[in-house]
Amino acid sequence: MKYLKINPADNVAVAINDLHRGESVTIDNMQIVLNADIPAGHKFALKDIAAKSDIIKYGYPIGHAREDIKQGDWVNEKTIKTNLEGLLDYEYNPHDVDLDIPNRNLTFRGYKRANGEVGVRNEIWIIPTVGCVNGTANSLAEQLRNETKLQGVDAIVAYPHNYGCSQLGDDHENTRKILRDMVLHPNAGGVLVVGLGCENNQVGAFRELLGDIDEARVKFMETQKVEDEYETGMQMLREIYEVASKDEREEVPVSELKIGLKCGGSDGFSGITANPLLGVFSDFLIAQGGSTVLTEVPEMFGAETILMNRCINRNMFDKTVHLINDFKDYFMKNNQPVYENPSPGNKAGGISTLEEKSLGCTQKCGKSLVKDVLMYGERIKTKGLNLLSAPGNDLVAATALASSGCHIVLFTTGRGTPFGTYVPTMKISTNTPLYNKKPGWIDFNAGTIVENEPIEAVNERFIAYVIGVASGELVNNEKKGYREIAIFKTGVTL
Predict the structure, then answer these.
(1) Which pLDDT does position 340 carry in this prediction?
(2) Any bridge partners for residue 4, and if so which?
(3) C-alpha to C-alpha distances, 94 to 295, 309, 370, nearest whole angstrom
(4) Same domain, yes or no, for 305 and 447?
(5) Domain residues for 20?
């Protein structure tokens, strides 16, 4: 396959391989001579498109022509302009959804926690309340790793960050919520919270925010109040380790899995291979009783009505409208364009407008009904498909997904990235060349979907792989120790 028309209504096709000027292609019984070299992943016109007329991909407009486009022309960000504008009014036109996917009663090997939750990892985390004690947290983690050789636990990790003091309003609360969500995450078999003592994010107040905890597994140290924070911290960590290292995996229904859906560094194949694969997987997991979470709100712009019309009721529709318009309002309050074009990497990969990226991005959540809408820092409380308020930034969005309670983040990419957040961050390549080039980054290749492997067969392999990871198989970011958190900041730093 050298090129693909995705939807019968489309007036552009996508080059699967590099195509060359003067080359002739036949689509819908039309012979088209290309007027330019067309890089793989990029679009070319199937017919003449008049200036200001819509350019259609995936069956939806992805913008309009800036000028007349001839049949066979290369169609890119220089020839397309977005159709999007500011705040909109929406109408609720609910769509029936019948997935008709049987429950296969699959299981994975996870860790059952005393509060009824389940983890896919049994790790010990050192979490600073404030950036001032990052060095202390890192040193404690290193010493415990050296002492224990990781016997009985999957990892021992410190999670430094820049915040916890000199923050006001929502930023302060965002920091507290994300750190709270980390402490409560079931992938942690034990947590040491390390504070300074004079920060805004006071240890005592933070302790109250957590609610009921297992005090044998979660301990607190305020470094200004102890004589030797290193010795005190190590003693607490040894006590936590003694408890957590006795945990063992056992069979758990896949209905307990909570999976985050994320994409970054997209290309022209994202909406053809990896994102649709995640959509098929998401529908499958939800049919098994599990949960998935879609975020990156700015990358819903232009495809938001698809999600709105799949809301389970009008209340959820109203929440989704607020989710979209509140994020647009955030852009406008900061005097920034709401519909900024995709990043340079996205453009190089064949993504020309935000609508085009959004129509590809939203495919990650399949066709399931939207069961709940979560604010930033809020934890999953409803099984099924959830929407989560967070920006598109890879580190911030992935951290937000983990903090909502996701056990694993599935991250599709056409450009590649090494990073991982504090839960397993699985990279799914949109194309085979990337998979072959970056085996130390990419965990699973969806590029075979345009190489004539049926998506159903790819999904069966993917299901088995996700269950393997949930049962303890490490993904690349874990193997390399690439684990980071990033907290959403919107306002003033004192």
Answers:
(1) 63
(2) 14
(3) 21, 4, 11
(4) yes
(5) 3-81
